[in-house]
């Protein structure tokens, strides 16, 4: 294997490892509920349809076939009902973790009935 290819593979592995570490810092801070809900992600002037797979009062995990850099600010509209400000905290394959920017009580109020079962 040429040195340049080995170096690229090592760099890719380092990026994947850092993404996993970032994800682990976010996991299980809040009680999560598994869901399958439609979502719309707004990044700047762009709008992306996505599927939300779990939710907590701290953020969401959604599937989007587009990688986004950690720290990217976005808004996520959940079930065409409520839009919350967030930022990307991890990205692994087609899955993205978003952390809500607002305090938990504001998120709970905004989610209304959607927050049932979340603590």
From TrEMBL:
One of its GO terms (molecular function) is cyclic-di-GMP binding. SUPFAM superfamilies: PilZ domain-like (SSF141371). InterPro entries: PilZ_domain. Pfam families: PilZ (PF07238). Signal peptide: none annotated. Residues 28-114 form the PilZ domain. This is PilZ domain-containing protein. It comes from hydrothermal vent metagenome.
């Amino acid at each position: 294997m040429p040195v340049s290819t080995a170096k690229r593979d090592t760099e890719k592995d380092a990026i994947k490892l850092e993404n996993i570490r970032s994800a682990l810092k976010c996991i299980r801070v809040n009680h999560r509920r598994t869901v399958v809900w439609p979502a719309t992600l707004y990044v700047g002037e762009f709008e992306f349809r996505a599927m939300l797979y779990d939710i907590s009062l701290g953020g969401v995990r959604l599937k989007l076939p587009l990688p986004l850099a950690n720290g990217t600010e976005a808004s996520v509209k959940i079930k065409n009902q409520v839009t919350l400000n967030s930022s990307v905290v991890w990205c692994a394959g087609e899955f993205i973790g978003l952390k809500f920017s607002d305090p938990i009580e504001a998120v709970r109020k905004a989610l209304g009935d959607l927050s049932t079962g979340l603590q």
